[in-house]
Task: structure prediction
Amino acid sequence: MAALPEEDMTPQLLERITEARQTGQRLVICGQQSKHFYAGVARGEPLDIRGHRGVIDYEPGDLVITARSGTPLTELEPILAEQGQCLGFEPPRFTVNGVASGTLGGAVAAGVSGPRRPWAGAARDFVLGVTMVNGRGERLHFGGQLIKNVAGFDVPRLMAGSLGTLGLLLDISIRVVPIRPRELTLSQPLSMEQALAKMTEWQRLPLPISGLVYHQGELSIRLSGTPQGVEAAQRLVGGDERGEATEWWSMLRDQNLPWFQGAEPLWRVSCAAAAKLADSAELKGEWLLDWGGAQRWYRGEAAAAALADYADQIDAQLTCFRGGDRHSPMVLLSPELVGVHRQLKQAFDPDGVFDDQRLQVHCPQAGQGEH
Amino acid sequence: MAENSGGVHCVKYGLTTHNIRQLRYFDHRGELVTLGGSGLDTPGYDLMAIMTGSEGMLGVVVEITVNLLPLPESIVLLQVAFPDMEKAGMGVMNIIAAGIIPAGLEMMDDAAIEVVENYVHMDLPLDAAAILLIELDGTQAEVEAQLASVKAVIEEFGAYDLRLAYSEQDRIKLWSGRKAAFPALGQVTTDFYIMDATVPRRHLSYALRRVDELSAQYRLRVANVFHAGDGNLHPLVLYDASQPDQVERTQQLADAILTMCLSLGGTVSGEHGIGAEKLDIACDQFSSVELEQFERLKRVFDPEGLFNPGKAIPTPKRCAELGGLHVHEGRVPFPELERF
Result:
């Protein structure tokens, strides 16, 4: 795919938003459509940000890069790698027509993070500043290029995971981290129960962990650090070195492992790392434990009710990540929080210029959808 | 939580906002609301991000669940001196650029070194322009490898008088100079004004040189003791509060320093918040539309203006009076909104 020229499309985007507001249109912000399957079904006119791209500022010694939101991750990451740096939260680059895709704006707006998340931080942890346009067509700048900044409310982090419902991100300043000199993946065959116990044990030790996954009968730990530090940890952890590990972690991150393919719904359980495993007969098998146990994936046609029961038992959050019924609200909240969500939407986008079907919130007690 | 604080170790371990798992607060109706949960994330808007660092403006937080980390197996503290501030700043930049994230990276300038030495008598190098304290932690093998890399980097920039501390007792002793800075200043001045601002690390040396120049211009001594690892400056202005003229010059100097930090892409508060004191200077950091957006956000949580009125976010009216808000033909934007 030929790279488009770097371009600042701020004037055109502002004009489109103002026009939509005046004519009562609803806009759906789209980049490369790599997370198009995720969350609620959007409705409205597309607002394409792919042309709004390019790095605005990058100073490796400051560990921060500022880039336009339409910049593809596959173009941003090599620029960082040249300086020995990377995006610490390993945003997934879901495949579109066989090509790894996703923009920086999409990665932040979706707030989805990869295998390194428990040790490095989530998308929201790396967002330092944003320039955005709210639903009134106002261009706003919050935060900056600094990790320490307590002037004003932390709007940049609020934007992470808001799925484009509060405004359009024009450019984003994001903290980057050094690529560690040595990475090593060690694997050992274990039962899921044994693996969870091992994960819990290792996470209580000061080890340089950067990935901890149980998949298809094997527990894999990724260690990242100095060669000496990794070697010392290897002696303690044990297991066999995994071949083609970089490729494997990349496939896990982008959900390209064969396990993720297929038509059955993919469910995500976000819970305490040591929370107990599902023991009901309905939920046996088909689990992939990531994030040292704190992110659990389930593939299959099991009754949503069984998964919801399990999530309740372990005080977890359950999301249907791919497939399933996308018209039911994805977020269940208390009545107070449903109110806050609705009013926040009003505060940023009073006329509903930006589609909010992607992030429908709902209060189970009230029995009705709100957004 | 209210100030999104981060101390010496936040270079490596993040600020408060990176380390909160769950919080509970009373909202404006007196209802107890829970944000976050037992897992690493919860769906919906990231309300914990908005509550953290909000200076008590959005609710009364009553319970916070924080992440814990295993204690590191090994810790080493390295203290080094630099012949000039430029080189010290380059040392800091290059440690980070070399891929090392120290647990702590703190600096003192010559004015602070002199005052501290007279107070704690640690035999600090009085000819140094800056002293850098670098703390590394991790497994023993990790720490040793990083220490070797750090030494290689700083020696390139003329570092001298290297001192190492491994045991807790030795580390406490070596930290005592940095930590004694405030009481030491109390010995040489009747009053001092502690500032808090952040600049991108790349501008650290330049910002310190400007602080020096401004100090001369306003005829007030300034010592610098600060978190170099994240560009968070703490200029300490020495003055005499019984002299009204000095009080006024201190405020002017402080404003000039903050304005300079803003011009470098910095912020008027790194870790201690806006409160009431910095409301005026915050007008320079935000435009009127940004302040209006803050106001609408505040009203989502606190429609009646119950929580900490007059703190943290300047009212557009206040900024207008200072000339910091663009008021077109006497019309304040969004006159229908209440100002807080």
Observations:
- Chain A has eleven helices and 22 strands.
- Chain A has a mean pLDDT of 92.
- Chain A touches chain B through 85 residues (CB under 8 Å).
